[in-house]
Amino acid sequence: MQKPAPAAGLRAWLPLLLVFLSACDSSDDPIIFLDGKAADELSAVADAAADDPTIRNLTIQVDSPNQGFLWRTARGSVDGPGGTPMTEDSVFRVADVTKMFTSVVILKLVENNFFTLDTPISDILDDSDMPGAFTLAELHERNGELRGGEITIGQLLAHTSGLRDYMFNKPDNGAASLSLAQRIVADVLGEIPSGISKGQWFHGSLLEYFFASGMSENALAAPGAEFHYSGTNYVLLGVIVQKVSQLTLAQMYRNAIYGEAQMNKTYLEWNENPKGDPVDHFWAVVRNNEVVNIDINAEGVNTSSNWGGGGVVATAADLNRFIRELFDGSFFAEESSLTSMRTTGSTGEPGTFYGLGLEHRIFNASGRTIDVYGHSGFWGTGVYYIPATGTSIVYTMNQVELDEDWLLEILRALNEAQLFTAVR
Description:
Elements: H1 10-24, H2 33-51, E1 57-64, E2 69-76, E3 92-93, H3 98-111, E4 141-142, E5 145-146, H4 153-158, H5 180-188, H6 203-212, H7 231-245, H8 249-261, E6 267-268, E7 282-287, E8 290-295, H9 307-310, E9 312-314, H10 316-328, H11 335-342, E10 345-346, E11 352-354, E12 359-365, E13 368-377, E14 381-386, E15 391-396, H12 406-416, H13 419-422
Antiparallel strand pairs: 1-2, 1-15, 3-9, 4-5, 6-9, 7-8, 10-11, 11-12, 12-13, 13-14, 14-15
């Protein structure tokens, strides 16, 4: 499932972390990052996560070659208490981290002159690419104006199209309406039985749901006006990739990314043969004042609705190779492509910005600005890179509802180990 960025809990935890980072970094302290401190601090983070009763399995990997440091861990079991142990090489659903993959593919198509970031989608798509009798213009209706064809490639990538999110937005702002995510939960719990949680989705059926639900008639903003995180943007980008390349989205990921980064265990779930069983993912919801921890694997939930915005399955090591290849510039022929991804605008959240399929989060350690780039995902997943230190961070808690922002906790551990002091 996809989850709007930034990670839940940012508002609550960011001020506390900024204070902590400022307090625990002193120029008088010895540089101890390479003396075991980082491993100890990161182990404490993993222990704390494993102690959370809603988290059943997790993995964390931190790679800082400039410091000669690589640390990996896994906790819990892949299929419930007492089951198969989670390992550092287990595969898991990466959710919205997939958006970085789609962005890389789109920018490679830009490099090959299929279109530009300013190309309106009406130059590529037409009414025949829309389901049923719906038209391209009707994708975006606001105040009686139909502007679907005006949306640009860049606006889709940057979530500034104004389109509602097919998964988490309600069709309108009415309290009685349900989002697709809420419908899935209600089906699993037997509250509103419909079978929707087990159905296979394709890009055509996702767009059909978007139109039929009425979401197209209630666009959130004019194209290019505001940031609104929406998986609908990445469904359309996937359709565009397939139309101009004449290949499936899964094939384009494989051709443009997996081979370059040697991501041998990564695949687009529900669209390719699996390379190992995904670990159980959990969705904690409150019903009758009690927490119900839904095991989506055991319940047979079909997550094909994620597709180009969240459908990839990978290992921590594969994701680590991806983010390092991305920031090494290996995916692109032109330096400007990565620069475009990293050029960000406001999300409305303090310290969090968004570029082209890429989050930019800013922290402060004793007056030292720490810039972190990457993406978070619905299942408590994160893949990030710190350019100033050459450090990559990959983690998944395989749980939707988390009380902590685990990226902040990992950064706090690295700061306690004086990573940022050591490279000053």
